[in-house]
Each structure stands twice: as C-alpha cells, then as structure tokens.
Amino acid sequence: MAKLILLWLKCVILYNAVGAVFEDQVGKFDWRQQYVGKVRFSHFDTHVQSSKKVLVATENNVFAALNTRTGELFWRHVDKSGPEGNIDALLHHGQDAILVVGNGRLLRSWDVNVGGLNWEIVLDSGSFQKACLVGQQGTVKNVAVLKKNIISLHYLSNGHQKWIENLPESETVDYQTVYSGGNGEVYALGIVPHSHVVIIAYSTDDGEIIKQISVEAPWLSNIVASCAVIGQGVLICVDSATPSLYMCDLHLDTHDLQMTQIPLQSLGLEVAPDFQPVLVSHQPNSAHQPLSEFFLQLGPDNFLLLQLNNGQIVTLRDFKPALLVSFATTGEKTIAAVMSPKNKTACSINLFSAETGRRLLDTTLIFVMDPNGGKPEKIYIQPFLKKDDSVGYRAMVQTEDHTLTFIQQPGRVMWTREEALSDVVTMEMVDLPLTGTQAELEGEFGKKADGLMSMVFKRLSSQLILLQAWIAHLWKLFYDARKPRSQVKNEVTIENLSRDEFNLQKMMVMVTASGKVHSFRLFFFFQLFGIDSKTGSILWRHYLEDVPSNAAFKLMVQRTTAHFPHPPQCTLLIKDQDTGLTTLHVFNPIFGKKSHVNPPALPQPILQSFLLPLMDQDYAKVLLLVDDQYKVSAFPSTKNVLQQLQEMASSIFFYLVDSSQGRLSGYRLRTDLSTEQIWEVVIPMEIQRIVSVKGKRPNEHVHSQGRVMGDRSVLYKYLNPNLLAVVTESTDTHQERSFVGIILIDGVTGRIIHEAVQRKARGPVHVVHSENWVVYEYWSTKSRRNEFSVIELYEGMELYNSTVFSSLDRPHAPQVLQQSYIFPSAISTMEATLTEKGITSRHLLIGLPSGGILSLPKMFLDPRRPEIVSEQSREENLIPYAPELMIRTEWFINYNQSISRVRGIHTSPSGLESTCLVVAYGLDIYQTRVYPSKQFDVLKDDYDYMLISSVLLALFFATMISKRLAEVKLLNRAWR
Amino acid sequence: MHLWMLLMFLGWCFTEMEAGPGAAMSTQTNGDRFKIEGRAIVPGVKTQDWVSTARVLVDGEEHVGFLRTDGSFAVNDVPSGSYVVEVVTPTYRFDPVRVDITSKGKMRYARLVNYIKTSEVIRQPYPLQIRSSGPHSYFMKRETWGWTDFLMNPMVMMMVLPLLIIVLLPKVVNTNDPEMRKEMEQSMNMLNPNPELPDVSELMTKLFSGSKGSSKAGSSSKGTRPAAKRR
C-alpha cells in the first residue's frame, strides 16, 4: 500500500516537474514576432477620424488589423492555407470589412472594431471575378459579386442574397468586372476578346436587366488590365497598339454605341516602347460616381494625371519620373499622391490636388530605401484634415521584399514590418564571435605549454586583462548611472555583438523565399536575415533575386566563429528541384556580407550534398557535392582538401534517395573522387512511396551509452550514427488498406536493421530520429485519431565494441522495442531538444495547430513503459503504460503566445548543458529557451539571495554573541 | 491498494469529465458539403473580448471556422465524415467534441471525444453549446518562501526542538531536586521503547528502501536519514 502511494507520488512529481514556465519568466528570454505575410489588399479604417487601424488582407490568407501608431496587430485571423482560404477581394465600408474567400466560395463580413465575424455565407459555385459595393441614394447597403456565369447581390447587414441572376451568354462572354455608380444600377462588364465588350445593367432592386449593349472593340483583350470606369459612368480603355484611349458612356441607351477613339498623339503623349499602359481610377464612395480624374501610366516611370471634362480629356499634370501613384480621400477632399525617385537611396512622396493637379504645400515626405532591400511596389496613403483645413498624411509603403514601412511627415519612420519573415524556409543558429579579450583568454588554454615561466606570465597577464575589463565595466556602470535613463542605450548592433557568458545569445540566420509579381510575371526571390536571438532585432539582411520558382534550400555552417582570424562562413545551397541545377551562396553569417571566397560553378545537376567533418587549412569544413554523373566535387577544393579526401576516401560513404523510383542506394568514394555503388534497396513503387528519409543530426551528442536497469545491469544503446529512418506511405489511400511503414537502414552497408508497418494508418508522418530512438506520428484511419509510435534500439546487455562504432563490424542485430500511444491532437511539426553534451534528458517539441508548442518529455515515449508495474520498473523510474498521452497546457513552452501555422522548430544547444535554444517559425517567429531537466547548472532565477545572506549574517552574529557570552562565562567561572 | 485505485479513478475523472457539451449541427446542406454549427460560451466574459483571438478547428487545420461577434460559429464546406471540432483560443479552454456527418448529411450528432474507445458514444443533448471550462493554466507556481515553511521543515524541527529541550529544560526543572530526578528517571523508563515492539522509524526505513534496505536497518537515527532525503 505504502509503496503504491510512493509510486503515485513519484508519478505526480514526474508529471509536474517537467518543463514549465513560471509566470515571472514571461518575456525574460523569449520573444514572438507576429506576421501577416505579403499584403495583397489594404484599407485604412476611416469611419472614425481617430481610428488607428489599417486593415490588411495578405497572400498568406491572413486578414488582420494593424495599429498605425506601432505596427502591432490589433487582431488577426488566419484562415486555412492553400487556395481554399485565398482572399480574393477586400471591400471596406464603415466598420464592416467584406471578404471574398476561396475563389468566391465564401463571403464574410468582419466587424473591424471587435475583430469578430458579422456573418459568413456560402456562395454558389463558380470562378470569382470581381466584387463591389453597391450604393443607392447615398447609402451603401449591398455588395455585388460577379462570377464567371452569375451575378448576385447581397445585403451588407446580414449577407442574405437579394437576388441572383445568370449572366447571358456566359459560355462565350468573359465577364470580368462589375461597377456601380450609386444610381440604382449595377453594371456587369464582359468581353469577347478581340471582338466586342458586353455591358449589362441590372436593377439594384430586383436584378432585372435594364439594358444589354455590346460595343465593338476588336483591339481589346482584357478589361481588368486596360480599362477603368470614371466620371459619370464612362468606360475608358487604353490600347497600346494604336496607341490611343477609347471611351464610351455606359449610361447612353443607344444600341449602336461606339467607342470614341482619342489617339494619344492628339494629347501630345507617347507610350514607352514595349509598355502596356495602365489606367488608375478612384471611387471615393461606393454610393457615388467615381472621380473624373484618373492616372495613365505610359512608361515604367511616367504617370499622367488626366481629367475627363465635358467629353474632353485634359492633361492636368505630367509626372516624370514617378514610381508609384495613389489616390486617397479625406472628408470632401481627394488627393493624388505621387512617389518619385530623389536619388539612389531615397524617394519623395508629394501630394497633389486631384481636381486641379496643383501641388499641395508642405506635403513632401522622404522615404529612405534600404540599399539591401527591394524597390517600392505600392503606396497606401492615409490623409487627414488638419485644423486649418489643410491636408496632412501618413504613408504606408510596400516594397518588393514584402516590407511594410509606415512613414510620417517629413520622413520619420514610425514602424516597419518585415513580412518576408512569414515565409522562412530554413534557418541556422551561429555562435557569436568572441571579443578580443575573450579570444585572448581562450588562447591561453588552447596552446600547448611552453615552459613554466611563460605559463605563469601568461596566467598573470590574462588575470590582468580580466581585471582591466572588470574595472572598465564598473566605470561604465558608474558613468551610465549618472546619465539620465533615457540616454542609456542598450541597442544591439553588429559592432557590439559578442558572445555572452553561456553562449545563450546567438545569431539566427533565416532564409525566406517568396514570390512576387513583377510586370505580370511571377518571380521568386529569397532573403537572408540575421537576427539577434536575444532581442529579435534584425541586424542584417540580404536580398537576392532570380531564384528558380521551386527551389530547395539547404543552409550549412562551414566555419564557426571559433577560428579567429578566419571569418565564419555559411553556405546556402539553392537547388532547382526541376532541373537539379544548383548554385551556392557563400556569406559571413555574422555580418551578412558575401564572402570573398568564390563558390565553384556547378554545371551538372546536384543529387546530394553533405558536410564532412574534415577541415581545410583554413578550418572550413569540406562540402561534398555529388552530381548526376556520380562524380564528387569538394568545396573548398584546395590541394590540402583533396589530399585529405584521398586519404579518407575509403571511409567516406553516402546515400542517394530517388523517391520517384523508390530507390535508395549507397555509394563509396574512390581515391580519384569517383564513386562506386555498394548497395541498393528498391521499395516497390506500386505499393508504397518514400515520404521522407531522416538521419541523425551531426551535432548531436549522446552522453550515456546505456541505461541502468532495475537489477543494476546495463542495457546498452544501439548508437549507430549511420542509421537512416525511411518513412513510406502506401499508394493505396483507401482507409482499410492504407498503411505507414518505417524502415531503419544502415547508410553505410545498406543493411535493413528493422522494419515496421502500421496498418490502417496514413500520413502526414512526422518523424524525429535521434540517439537510439525514432519517434513518429501518423493518423490512424481505423480509430480516427493521431498516434505516436516509438522505436528504440538496444545492443543488449553487452557492448560489442565499446570504443568505436563501425557499421561494417557489427555482427549482432540490435534488440528493437516499440510502443504506440494515442495523441489527442493533430500536430504540425516535431523536433527534439538538443543540448551541448547530451546529459540533459530529451524532450520532444511538438507544434500543434492550436498554436501551442508542447514540450513532451521523451520519458513518456519509452517502449519500456510497463503495463504491469514491477519492482524493477519502479527502480528504473519507468512510468506505467497509459495509452493516451496528455496535453497539459503547463507544458506549452510558449504559454499564451500562440504561433500560427508552425512549419518548423529549430533547436540549438547553448553553452549551458541544461539549456536548449528553440526557435519556432511559421507565420510567426518565436524564440525561447527550454530546460528539459530544469536549470541544474546555474542558480535558478528565483534563487533567494536575501535568505542566504540573512542566514549567513545571523549565524555570524550568533557566533560573535555566543563567543562573547562564553568568554563572560569563563571569566565568571574563573572568579568563582 | 484501494486508495491507489481511487486516485487513478479520480485522475481519469479530471481529465475526461471536464468535457462540457458539444456543438450543434444544422441541417442546411450545400451539395455534398455540409455545415457544422455551434456556439461557444465563456461564462462571465463578454464575447467581444475574446472572439477576435478564437478559431474553430476541425480535425487540426483541415477546416477552419471563425466566431461571430455573438460567439456562434459555422464551419462551411465540410464533406461527410467524422471530425473532432475544437474551439481554440490562447486564453480559454474548450473541450473538443466529435461530430459525425453521414454521407447524406442527415444523421449528425455530437459526442464527447474519447480516443481510447472510439466506438463508445456519449451523445450530447441537442441543440447544444460548447462552454469554456475556464482559462488555460500555463504557469507553474513558484515555491514561495515563508517563515512557516522554514520552521515546519523537518530538519529545522529536528534541530530546534532538541536545542530547546537542552537549553530550557534544565532551567525550568530544578535538577538538583532529588525528588524531581527520581520522577524523571521513572518517566524516562516509560519512554524507553519496548524491545518487543517494532520501531516506527525502522518501519519507515524498511518501507522506503525496499527489500534490500530492510536487512541492514540500523538504529533509529540512521534510519530516519534516508527518509528525510527522499523528500
């Protein structure tokens, strides 16, 4: 009975003692940055004059409200990723925001103030074209949605459908846009390319067709790209071939309506060669007609402000050079903002009156561009009326690198948001360099002893350096203390970056890849970010264009900061997944500068790349690249390296995975850097396909070779560094026949160590492979739940060769233990903690769709968990088997700082054995530290200095007093 | 043994029984896609204060729904099947509910999620609502230090009490009085353990150190030490 109580106590302790955050630790060593992604639509909330909100809908299917003062989020709604959550349109009226989602599948209305949904309705199927607000008699009450073959009108208040009409001849006519000028009519504009334009006017009240006109336009191919509606319902189009403007009045009710041609030459204008002119119009209020002024872009840097006046086009102003233009309205005033280049690094924004084209005084705003960033792409203007009725404004500039910058006059940057960081593909953490003094101190221990005297001198000199540093530190403290607090800056810059005592602060090198549309072509680019792990501030960035659209990235640290004076070196491998062609980008991870080392040109497609533990004379690790001819090239490829490679060739093996053929093959390096195949495993493609292949992390250390059993014997772990975990999924997806397989293969010999199949299961499978265990998670179709399974490998009670592990000489097959558990949630990603020496117990970090990151002790995923508790299992601290794993919110390392769409978790050891640095990335980035076995090597941060010093003092005084008393007593006794 | 069972049982109760009611379903259909409807309630908190951070997740992020300003929700476009519906907010805890939609979209019911016995059905009354079972507890409590903790510490008690006895007893009791001494001797004899009776501390030692430790259970002072260490 008592034993059971004890066991229960133990369990309770185990459940409680693992990974948790204390309330006072919030924000001490963790930070979160929330992103929304590349902005697609943006509106300033204008229904209240003092509103601080800007609404953004992004390409990452996020709809959010940002605070214009700080750039932080008021609220954010993350929809399903992929086309089903794609935001097609954003309309804004009063305190409602209307969103069309999922190619016209859903229509949603959000309350902007609360951030909650007003209503959501499902629209009829059909490819979405355009939506617009429809006003009548000065008020906006409806929203019109145009699809490929239907047009529908909905009430803004509840989303209910007012009417729905089929569009006539929708098989031949391509309806592209919808327009309403607030006069009780809704116009659907369609086109038969290179033939005619179809204009249909519907009555707002009942959807009755008021008129249907077709206008000859053989030169027109796309209404959206080259037309706009201006003034009192005049459709104006631009044709680059003639080049001329065409106009026609939508309200005229004649059946022989013609488009009036106005050659641009007659206006004295010229189109830049090879340029498709663009029209920009503006409708300040959906209940009223649009402005009769509009912009015409004639070249990449040439805009014209034109006006339609009594059927005549008048040029108000020519802007050249101008990069971007935008209209904005405040109160009754509408202004046109024009951004023009000033010099190489700055642009200026000026406001002009839209009606006259006159420049408004004191409205110049300077936007300083980041030389490492992209060009401005869009500007959003938030105008406001000052007390003297003049117009003031703030501007939000979106650049090609997805940065949002919010500027105030005359050029003060209020905030910036690096939205590219919502698309992190891979990352690495690099140690910061030592300072000069630190390096000198380290040097003392590194060098070999050369005589007693010099050692003593060195010791003394280093002590002196330490003393000096300490005095300098004290002086700085004293100096700072005298200054007012506001002046003391603790900003981190690249210059004052240095490693801290326990190497807890590191440089996060993040690679982001995102697409951008430039002159109707999709480009891809990637950016490198260097982020300080302590504060999350971006220290450097590098913007690179022209990346293949489906590139795979691999980031490798070739040289750490430990080899002063050689600079640290990182290599980013960019591989086009279609062609296999690869480029290397070599850079310094601390400063972000491109390295002077020239990477080799790689004309052949690359199949495999890996870092060898070999180093060249400059301490850079050797990167081996295997091309499609199975030839190996090394980088760096100096003589020294080649010589080392020749010596080592017989012990360099690598594997290739061809998942399209289901083939795994192993190769050995020959001394002439050619290769020979030594094994091949073919997984039949008809039945199953390879989903992922996971090796162990090269920087992982395992401290203990075995586990002590209850009877004091040792069960040795099977620590094969060459082990690969191959995950397969069945091609048959029927829920009765689908399965998930896992194969453990030795990467050197090709020997299959173990094979396990989970029947009635399907992916996505998440795998973690570390030490002597593999943990994987899958969906059980039979029981409709997520399940974890763990495989552990043991050598047995005796170790075959305890000094070194060789795959070639391991005669005994390992013992395999496996156990499965139920997990009560889906998971997004999974990673294991990593510490410097591997003494600390391991935890699994599991990213959940709810946004939490669960730190689950590996102890719970132990195939030796007994079903029946015995004396021995208790001795070993094994938890009795329970089928369901628990999710306790106390184990969330990110407490309420939930992270949306976690895509990856990166773990990195710190200088402290107890501490593991964790970065989770997805839509957000979260950095924290975890202590899987609590902080056993440093004093806890709640260590009570007061208590210990007061106890010491009390003891000291007690001894003093008792000494005195004893003396008095002795004296008294002597007198007696 | 019985106590152990009881504790286990209680443990399960806490984890399983907290699940409140579930989600209500509508009968609106849309092709072969259906709609899961319901309402989430946080007692005592205005909906405006929390709906902006909440989402409805169906089978992970397979389908996503958002909450209306009154706390109700609808997840559209869900094909037939069996789903776990969960309302997720960083602040409040809601228990997941399993929802089944037949291929005709007609027989839909909600029940408590039971991952172990998936066939077991505890239906929720219809129509129903998901009620929050309180805020999430993310943080561990710090061990706070108080004088009482310090004084009630067994080690301190062990140190302080004998000290008090040694220092105070001679002052209170006049040891020079022969009568008193006799009395004390008598009482000491009373206190002396009966050699037949097992020592309490010895018993504890046996319990805590398992079978091996029992053979060399020493004197009482030795025996208490491992026990103290265990704590």
TrEMBL record, chain A:
A cellular component annotation (GO) from this entry: EMC complex
Domain ER membrane protein complex subunit 1 C-terminal positions: 770-975
Pfam family, one: EMC1_C
Domain EMC1 first beta-propeller: 20-419
Compartment(s) of residence: Endoplasmic reticulum membrane
Matching Gene3D superfamilies: YVTN repeat-like/Quinoprotein amine dehydrogenase (2.130.10.10)
Oligomeric and partner information: Component of the ER membrane protein complex (EMC).
Membrane topology: Single-pass type I membrane protein
Family designation: Belongs to the EMC1 family.
SUPFAM superfamilies noted in UniProt: Quinoprotein alcohol dehydrogenase-like
Presence of keyword Ribosomal protein: no
Signal peptide as annotated in the record: 1-20
Annotated GO biological process: protein folding in endoplasmic reticulum
Protein name (Swiss-Prot/TrEMBL): ER membrane protein complex subunit 1
InterPro entries: Beta-prop_EMC1_1st, EMC1, EMC1_C, Quinoprotein_ADH-like_sf, WD40/YVTN_repeat-like_dom_sf
Entry keyword set: Disulfide bond, Endoplasmic reticulum, Glycoprotein, Membrane, Signal, Transmembrane, Transmembrane helix
Automatic annotation (TrEMBL), chain B:
Keyword field contains Repeat: no
One Pfam family linked to the record: EMC7_beta-sandw
Annotated spans, Disordered: 191-231
Coiled-coil stretches: none
Positions with biased composition (Low complexity): 209-223
Keywords (A to Z) from UniProt: Membrane, Signal, Transmembrane, Transmembrane helix
Domain ER membrane protein complex subunit 7 beta-sandwich, chain residue ranges per copy: 46-158
Annotated signal peptide: 1-19
Localisation: Membrane
Membrane topology of this protein: Single-pass membrane protein
InterPro entries given in the database record: Beta_sandwich_EMC7 (IPR019008), Carb-bd-like_fold (IPR013784), EMC7 (IPR039163)
TM spans (from-to): 150-173
Assembly behavior: Component of the ER membrane protein complex (EMC).
Family: Belongs to the EMC7 family.
Record's protein name: Endoplasmic reticulum membrane protein complex subunit 7
Species of provenance: Oreochromis aureus (Israeli tilapia)
